[in-house]
């Protein structure tokens, strides 16, 4: 497969990269180069396309630069030899589009183009459309979120937002790294379509030859007592990174001021008055805060650093039992948190955006509101002061970082590209329909998942849908991770959303089902009625949907919620599952009603629908289906379902249990002999692990 990445901004070249050399030379370059390297290692032919200029050295003038075997960097010449920042670059986009067309004529067309930032999407749009090349778009940073986070407005930002919306409108797929990007940030745009948004998680680059001594030498001239544990921040000098606030946090917390040092590496600067206006403002604010609080000797703000200094700083901070801090007002993802994890360095990060995903999966720190200066500082001090907490966070980083792999990113990206090149066939009216839960039902045993994929490929008379508590983007990510086939339809968010296939194979929301759920659904009144119920703790904002409200709580809390709604005269369904998850749904919602609706949509009689599940949020679907399979690893939450004709309790676990049930219920045969992944051949006392790749509650 030929993959072409296009990233125009910043000083992009083969490593080592001078991050911070300009305002636009940031984490997106690390992302693009790591992705290209991993894709080439898997056999793809990869080109990284960027802009050619003469400033900052000869490295940026080569039109064809070798990178790694299978990957190279190509540069577009737009006729202007100067380096151009983002705003100035906008004026050169027509010339770059022409140069890009000429490059495709010369080099040949790739199978897929991956555009990074909206300017790249604008440059490739015409040429890609003319040649029928699907375009993947990754925003990396979004204007609407920036506008809301820092209150910035003006014609430049509004043009950027319009450009981002146009990129979403023309993209065949949108790739983002975090749930917050996929489900909140992107969905603020009119042209965003949930059915083309995919979460593909980047990797953690291994730390090679990091020398803590380099970092010690870099910061020593600034610090009176370099032996103190450091609070380390590495970020571009832009307003949304909120670096001056970190100085305030450090200065106003007595434990930090007396017992730690603050090290802020904010790009490369020649002086206070050089560079873009935003960068100059940040540097002045940083130095003013240091001076105002008389922190000289406790704060290091190096003007320059080499690429090798960055991994050295992480290693040095970990060696001295420090903490990495990211107080950004908004953070689309947070690659620096992965870099900290690679060094085993605990973190405290903003609770706005991607860090919730990263820290939730890695467990190497905590998130907090960046505008709560005292609270954020207290979280940092708490890690520094508590050796047990610091050790636990560092150990979690070292243990869990292997889950974040660029090789897995490349595999997921390849699967996405294959899907774009061979779209999902729109099924003819199927004779049967399988509606299956995902977590623990189809996942949990990779060999069984592969057998299920083989069954699916060989049984075209069966329609296939999944019914899950997850969102659409998370469901697709899990299916990719387990090499499971994409279904014909998705029932998501515990039966409160349905996505169907359009004629071209794209997923589109079932708006008629949404209107059906709106009947009797009073979201604001439900929130008010449940706000004071003892034992209910709201789940993260990303779990709250238009037609689903979610809390943590035990069975007693679920009963109390039911009582509160009855007392308030409010209609809603309450689903308690997995021991501590409580979902409140519209009266017409839930997996069972969604399953019946989907059957009618696809023209499948209710008697020809087979449901499969493993937990409490599958109970209504399993009870309602004429034929139902409870897999062998099911939770005790389904023990109450009485035996009946058409209900099969499988002995096999996970996807093998689904296949066992299909055999038994479709053919009317006795229960098949137990195969791989069953209770019979699981060693006594062994634990069946749901390896879903993330430390979050399975749904």
UniProtKB/TrEMBL annotation:
<dbReference type="InterPro" id="IPR028098">
    <property type="entry name" value="Glyco_trans_4-like_N"/>
</dbReference>
<dbReference type="Pfam" id="PF00534">
    <property type="entry name" value="Glycos_transf_1"/>
</dbReference>
<protein>
    <recommendedName>
        <fullName>sucrose-phosphate synthase</fullName>
        <ecNumber>2.4.1.14</ecNumber>
    </recommendedName>
</protein>
<comment type="similarity">
    <text>Belongs to the glycosyltransferase 1 family.</text>
</comment>
<feature type="domain" description="Sucrose phosphatase-like">
    <location>
        <begin position="431"/>
        <end position="663"/>
    </location>
</feature>
<dbReference type="GO" id="GO:0046524">
    <property type="term" value="F:sucrose-phosphate synthase activity"/>
</dbReference>
<keyword id="KW-0808">Transferase</keyword>
<dbReference type="Pfam" id="PF05116">
    <property type="entry name" value="S6PP"/>
</dbReference>
<dbReference type="InterPro" id="IPR006380">
    <property type="entry name" value="SPP-like_dom"/>
</dbReference>
<dbReference type="InterPro" id="IPR023214">
    <property type="entry name" value="HAD_sf"/>
</dbReference>
<feature type="domain" description="Glycosyltransferase subfamily 4-like N-terminal">
    <location>
        <begin position="26"/>
        <end position="183"/>
    </location>
</feature>
<dbReference type="InterPro" id="IPR044161">
    <property type="entry name" value="SPS"/>
</dbReference>
<dbReference type="InterPro" id="IPR006379">
    <property type="entry name" value="HAD-SF_hydro_IIB"/>
</dbReference>
<feature type="domain" description="Glycosyl transferase family 1">
    <location>
        <begin position="228"/>
        <end position="398"/>
    </location>
</feature>
<dbReference type="Pfam" id="PF13579">
    <property type="entry name" value="Glyco_trans_4_4"/>
</dbReference>
<dbReference type="InterPro" id="IPR001296">
    <property type="entry name" value="Glyco_trans_1"/>
</dbReference>
<dbReference type="GO" id="GO:0016791">
    <property type="term" value="F:phosphatase activity"/>
</dbReference>
<dbReference type="InterPro" id="IPR036412">
    <property type="entry name" value="HAD-like_sf"/>
</dbReference>
<keyword id="KW-0328">Glycosyltransferase</keyword>
């Amino acid at each position: 497969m030929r993959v072409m990445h296009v990233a125009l901004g910043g000083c992009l070249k083969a490593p080592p990269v001078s991050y911070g050399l300009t305002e636009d030379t940031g984490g997106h370059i690390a992302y693009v180069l790591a992705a290209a390297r991993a894709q080439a290692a898997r056999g793809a032919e990869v080109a990284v396309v960027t802009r050619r200029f003469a400033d900052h050295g000869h490295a940026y003038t080569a039109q064809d630069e070798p990178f790694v075997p299978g990957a190279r960097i190509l540069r577009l010449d737009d006729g202007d030899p100067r380096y151009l920042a983002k705003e100035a670059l906008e004026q050169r986009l027509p010339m770059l589009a022409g140069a890009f067309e000429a490059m495709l004529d010369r080099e040949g067309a790739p199978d897929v183009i991956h555009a990074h930032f909206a300017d790249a999407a604008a440059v490739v749009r015409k040429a890609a459309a003319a040649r029928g090349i699907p375009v993947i778009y990754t925003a990396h940073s979004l204007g609407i979120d920036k506008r809301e986070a820092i209150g910035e407005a003006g014609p430049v930002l509004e043009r950027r937002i319009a450009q981002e919306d146009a990129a979403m409108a023309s993209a065949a797929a949108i790739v983002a790294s975090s749930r917050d990007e996929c489900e909140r940030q992107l969905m603020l745009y009119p042209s965003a379509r949930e059915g083309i948004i995919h979460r593909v998680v980047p990797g953690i680059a291994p730390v090679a030859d990091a020398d803590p001594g380099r970092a010690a030498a870099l910061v020593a001239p600034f610090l009176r007592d370099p032996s103190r544990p450091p609070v380390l921040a590495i970020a571009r000098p832009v307003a949304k990174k909120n670096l001056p606030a970190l100085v305030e946090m450090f200065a106003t917390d007595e434990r930090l001021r007396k017992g730690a040092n603050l090290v802020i590496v904010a790009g490369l600067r020649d002086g206070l008055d050089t560079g873009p206006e935003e960068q100059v403002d940040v540097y002045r604010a940083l130095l003013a805060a240091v001076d105002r609080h008389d922190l000289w000797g406790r704060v290091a703000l190096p003007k320059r650093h080499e690429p090798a200094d960055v991994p050295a700083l992480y290693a040095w901070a970990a060696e001295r039992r420090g903490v990495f801090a990211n107080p950004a007002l908004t953070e689309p993802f947070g690659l620096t948190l992965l870099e900290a994890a690679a060094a085993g360095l605990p973190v405290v990060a903003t609770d706005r955006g991607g860090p919730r995903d990263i820290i939730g999966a890695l467990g190497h720190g905590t998130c907090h509101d960046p505008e709560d200066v005292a609270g954020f500082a207290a979280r940092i001090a708490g890690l520094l002061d508590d050796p047990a907490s610091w050790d636990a966070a560092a150990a979690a980083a070292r243990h869990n970082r292997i889950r974040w792999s660029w090789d897995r990113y490349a595999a997921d990206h390849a699967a996405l590209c294959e899907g774009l090149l061979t779209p999902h066939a729109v099924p003819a009216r199927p004779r049967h329909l399988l509606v299956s839960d995902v977590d623990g039902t189809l996942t949990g045993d990779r060999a069984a998942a592969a057998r299920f994929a083989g069954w699916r490929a060989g049984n075209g008379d069966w329609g296939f849908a999944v019914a899950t508590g997850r969102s659409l983007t998370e469901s697709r990510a899990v299916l990719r991770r387990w090499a499971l086939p994409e279904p014909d339809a998705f029932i998501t968010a515990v039966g409160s959303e349905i996505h169907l296939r359009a004629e071209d194979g794209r997923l589109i929301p079932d708006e008629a089902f949404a209107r059906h759920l709106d009947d009797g659904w009073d979201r604001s009144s439900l929130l008010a009625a449940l706000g004071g119920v003892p034992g209910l703790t709201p789940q993260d904002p990303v779990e709250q949907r238009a037609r689903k409200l979610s809390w943590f709580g035990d069975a007693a809390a679920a009963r109390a919620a039911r009582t509160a709604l009855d007392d308030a005269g409010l209609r809603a369904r309450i689903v308690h599952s997995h021991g501590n998850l409580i979902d409140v749904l519209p009266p017409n919602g839930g997996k069972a009603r969604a399953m019946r609706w989907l059957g009618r949509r696809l023209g499948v009689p209710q008697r020809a629908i087979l449901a499969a599940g493993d937990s409490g949020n599958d109970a209504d679907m399993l009870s309602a289906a004429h034929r139902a399979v409870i897999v062998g690893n099911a939770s005790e939450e389904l023990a109450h379902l009485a035996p009946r004709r058409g209900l099969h309790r499988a002995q096999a676990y996970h996807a093998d249990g689904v296949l066992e049930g299909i055999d038994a219920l479709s053919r009317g045969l006795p229960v098949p002999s137990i195969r791989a992944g069953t209770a019979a051949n699981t060693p006594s006392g062994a634990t069946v692990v749901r390896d879903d790749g993330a430390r979050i509650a399975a749904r």
